[in-house]
Amino acid sequence: MVKSPLEKNENWSLEIYPKASLFDFRLKEFWAYRELILLFVRRELVPTYKQTILGPLWFILQPLLTTFVYSIVFGAFARIPTDGLPQLLFYMPGIVLWNFFNSSFMKGSGTFLANSHIFGKVYFPRLILPVAGLLSSFVNFLIQFSLLLLIMAGYWIAGTEIHPGAQILILPLLLILVSMYSLGLGLVVSAFTTKYRDLNHFLVFGSQLLMYATPIIYPASIVPDKFRWVSLLNPLSPIFEGFRYSLLGMGQLMTERLMFSFVFSLLLLILGLILFSRAERTSIDTV
Amino acid sequence: MAEIAIKVENLGKSYRLGALGSATLKRDFLSMFGKGQNKEEDEREILWALKNVSFDIKKGDAVGIVGKNGAGKSTLLKLLSRTTAPSTGSIKVHGKISSLLEVGTGFHPELTGRENIFLNGAIMGMSKRDIKAQFDEIVEFSGVSRFIDTPVKRYSSGMYVRLAFAVAAHLETEIMIIDEVLAVGDIDFQKKCLGKMKEVTGSKGRTVLFVSHNMSAVKALCNYGLFLEKGTLRTTGSVQKVTEAYTAANKGLIETSELADRTDRSGNKSVILVDYYAEDMVGNRIETVLTGEDITFCFTLRCGPEKARNVDFGLNFYDPEEANMGVLYSSYQSVYFEMEPHQLMQIKCVVPNFPFTIGTYKVGTRIVVNNEESDWLLGGAGFISVENGDFYGTGSTGFTHPYMTNFLGRWIHEVQK
Question: CB distance from B235 to chain A under 8 Å?
Answer without folding.
Answer: no
